[in-house]
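Example record

Each entry pairs one chain with its bound ligand, zinc ion.
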Amino acid sequence: MRKVLLIFIDGLGLGEDDPATNPLVRFDPLFLRSLFGRPLVRNLGCIRSDQVCLVPTDANLGVPGLPQSATGQTAIFTGINAPQLMGRHILGFPGPALAAVIAEHGIMRALADAGFSVTSANMYSADYMDLVARRQRRHSVTTLTILGAGLPLRSLPAMAAGEAVYQDITNKMLPRFGITDVPAVDPAVAGRRLADLARRHAFTMFEYFQTDRQGHKHDWDEAAKIVATLDGFLAAVHAAAGDTLVVVTSDHGNFEDFSVKTHTANPVPTILFGPGCRSVAAAVGNLTDIKPAIIAYLKEGDKQ
Ligand SMILES: [Zn+2]
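Structure tokens for the complex follow.
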């Protein structure tokens, strides 16, 4: 069985090779440097090998204005040009029109309907659905993608069993939300947990969004922690992925440029490693290509 792990990182573009503005250059993390021999910046261009690929991926999708989360993420997880469909880039959380698109065309539903085992590794608090019902939280695109496939959200029992990863990777933010009985984990432990889950499903996804939060805030100390966390996490996923194809992508630029507090029009890095990375990379040019490329790879494996 072929396996794909999709790691979605909110607000991570390919920026300048400049330590004054780009945290990925200033902190130059070990694992990301090891992948392509240099920090993850725009002038790396397109890199394709049988081991690891980098595709600078268009997030603007032919629509004027800066790309935003609701439409960009819908493009990734449905394969539909959502900003074009809506006539503009829509920020934040999807409204009813985009929610309907996600419910019908989400990648998890498409794969589940085709008989593939699919899951999301993200842990949600036990009261998450109640908070949404009380309008204190809103479903993100990824949450709607999970719910659209009729799947339950992972929660505290899954975390206790080592079978979930919280959105901040390390669990260190959980006490802020009143959850004090979940121990913090090293990014490497979280990465191994995610890779283990991915080995047991045809398709696994995980969302990390602290990059976008910090891309709007510009706290360099926090940015250093984010870079270190992500690097340790991705290094562990890479080491433990085995025969899983790993696809890392983003919805728009932001974190790579601390000279502006808005999103950027930069391409986003789609990083692929593991079996099939070269052929899947060849099918990706913009955000709408990711869903069909993953589905084609999994279905091709079924024929073998
Ligand atoms: Zn943002």
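DSSP finds 14 helices and six strands in the chain.
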